[in-house]
Amino acid sequence: MQDASKAIYGIIGNPVKHSLSPIMHNTAFKELDVNAEYRLFPLEEFELVDFFKELKSDQCPIFGLNVTVPYKEKVMGYMDSFSPLAQKLGAVNTIMINKERKLIGYNTDAPGFISHLTELNFNPEGKRIAILGSGGSCRAILGTLCMLPERPESIRIYNRTTSRLNDLIKDLGERIDLSIVEMVYSVDDLNIELADLLINTTSVGLKPEDPILVEEDMLHASLLVYDLIYRPKATELLRMAQDRGAQTANGLNMLFYQGVLSFQRWANMELPEEIKTKMLNAIERALDSD
């Protein structure tokens, strides 16, 4: 946080080295000829207190942040205020720091996810959905699906740590109608064989040695398998789904859509379409070069 010659933006999390956010946002800064830089801030949990304390300093050059695993819920306690959506979901992935050094929390994951589903021509209305996970991204996706005017028929959700999923359902249920949601205690009970959409919101798949959480015979050609992981471009789950004839998508375009919304919050402006296209092209090229 030492370089005061330019405005600094970045992403906090653990891990963050795989993130394509710096490529996306620095492309936009360059195209707009803005004296700013987007950086990675890998933080251990014990470092959060000092990091957020320094953010309050008038000398701090940081004016905006993204938040990734595992801190989307933990950062809530450091905010001065929230957008209504972030408050309802109980998760923040975008932080704006104003001139008074007040921290305002937003959630752009939720609209980013819905924007990508729309691009994929998937309408959640009346659909049967299965979800893996219980973290901050899961909160955003589950909460958003339940708040849609025309909701899915059902959502089944599984997490390996049952207590964490219990906490998520209890907390979200205080602010959002979760009557279509059923928490299950094994992957088998997700009924993926009958589902229209399977969403992996866990980090399982980031590493080559990670297990696959579902069995191959659960997947089918009428299923959309959506893995929030985008690096690697195709996780083992997505490869297996492709072999079964399922439609697949990784989280790259969700990253793009939420990133555009984050940038627009920080800049207080609508990005021109040509800038958005260059942001998307930049992260697509980076992923293709892996």
Instruction: Please give the share of residues in helix.
Output: 25-40%
- The value of Rg in angstroms is 19 Å
| Biggest sheet architecture | 6 strands, mixed
Question: How would you write the strand order of the largest sheet?
Answer: 2-1-3-5-6-4
The average pLDDT is 96
Task: State the secondary-structure class.
Answer: alpha/beta
Order of H and E elements:
EHEHEEHEEHEHEHEEEHEHH
**Beta-strand proportion:** 15-25%
- For the secondary structure, the number of strands is 12
Q: What is the second-level CATH architecture of the largest domain?
A: 3-Layer(aba) Sandwich
Q: Assign an overall shape.
A: globular
CATH superfamily of the largest domain: NAD(P)-binding Rossmann-like Domain
Output the number of helix runs: 9
- CATH domain fold name of the largest domain: Rossmann fold
CATH class group of the largest domain? Alpha Beta
Compute the number of structural domains. Answer: 2
Measured between the Cα atoms of the first and last residue, the distance is 29 Å
Unreliable stretches (pLDDT < 50, length at least 5) are none
